[in-house]
């Protein structure tokens, strides 16, 4: 009986698919609800997918458009506010968007734009900032951006700026009693800003960039600093192996709750 029911259900599905296929072959597929009241999107049997080169160029053009907006109105600042053409400097004002874009510029083959970005990179001063540096963001955006670009196009200037950043801003975060990095560093004094609580991701996800920096510089201090975090975390009991709560007490180095 169950076999008959399964076969009947399968037959019904096949009939439905056949009906859909027949309808598709006879008429165009039409999305009648246009975006924001705009014209409906129509897909016909004659619709073809552009070749790969054409599609890649469309992506490059979209990036060029975004990059031009940034360079016209916010170059050197961290972010562009596209609705007002204003700027924000939430990441110390070192030009976070530029560092974010370095590897993308190289991958897309945008040489002129890359050279423009590179000129900013070579002049950046990590010791100049009115705000504390957030260790996590500085690591993933600035150090990560420099190392990604260096792997794509090795240049001693990129490596030197990465090393400077690590020495001036990131490594001082580890100057704590248990060598777990503080969430913030005072860029002017080069001292960590201690807090009572910190998010696991903010101190537990620095290894990729630090290990890579050790590999390309031959200085194992960065790798050892990153690995120390993992060693400390692994010594803390957890209800499920490898799964730890989100909020931690830095002084006790223990989760503050079970979430």
From TrEMBL:
Q: Which domain of life is it from?
A: Eukaryota
Q: Which GO terms describe its biological process?
A: carbohydrate metabolic process; ERAD pathway
Q: Which cofactor does it need?
A: Ca(2+)
Instruction: Please tell me one Gene Ontology term that the record gives under cellular component.
Output: membrane
What keyword terms does UniProt attach to this protein?
Answer: Disulfide bond, Glycosidase, Hydrolase, Signal
According to its UniProt record, in which pathway does this protein act?
Protein modification; protein glycosylation
Q: Output the InterPro entries linked to this UniProt entry.
A: 6hp_glycosidase-like_sf, Glyco_hydro_47, Glycosyl_Hydrolase_47, Seven-hairpin_glycosidases
Renumbered to this chain, the signal peptide range is 1-22
Provide a Gene Ontology MF annotation, just one: calcium ion binding
Q: Which SUPFAM superfamilies match?
A: Seven-hairpin glycosidases
Signal as a keyword? yes
Q: What is its EC number?
A: 3.2.1.-
* Family according to the record: Belongs to the glycosyl hydrolase 47 family.
Q: What is the protein name given in its UniProt record?
A: alpha-1,2-Mannosidase
């Amino acid at each position: 009986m169950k076999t008959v029911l399964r076969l009947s259900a399968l037959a019904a599905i096949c009939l439905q698919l056949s009906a859909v296929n027949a309808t598709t072959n006879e008429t165009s597929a039409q999305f009648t609800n246009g975006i924001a009241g705009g014209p409906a999107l129509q897909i016909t049997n004659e619709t073809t997918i552009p070749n790969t080169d054409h599609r890649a160029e469309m992506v490059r053009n979209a990036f060029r458009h975004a990059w031009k907006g940034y360079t016209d109105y916010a170059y050197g600042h961290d972010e562009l506010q596209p609705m007002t053409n204003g700027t924000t400097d939430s990441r110390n004002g070192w030009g976070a968007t530029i560092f974010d874009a370095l590897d993308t510029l190289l991958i897309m083959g945008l040489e002129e734009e890359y050279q423009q970005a590179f000129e900013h990179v070579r002049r950046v001063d990590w010791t100049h900032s009115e705000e504390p540096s957030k260790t996590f963001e500085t690591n993933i955006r600035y150090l990560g951006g420099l190392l990604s670009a260096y792997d794509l196009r090795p240049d001693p200037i990129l490596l030197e700026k990465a090393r400077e950043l690590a020495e001036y801003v990131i490594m001082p975060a580890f100057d704590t009693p248990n060598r777990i990095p503080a969430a913030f560093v005072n860029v002017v004094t080069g001292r960590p800003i201690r807090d009572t609580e910190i998010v696991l991701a903010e101190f537990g996800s620095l290894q990729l960039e630090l290990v890579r920096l050790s590999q390309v510089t031959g200085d194992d201090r960065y790798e050892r600093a990153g690995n120390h975090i993992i060693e400390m975390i692994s010594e803390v009991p957890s209800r499920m192996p490898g799964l730890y709560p989100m909020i931690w007490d830095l002084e006790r180095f223990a989760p503050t709750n079970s979430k």
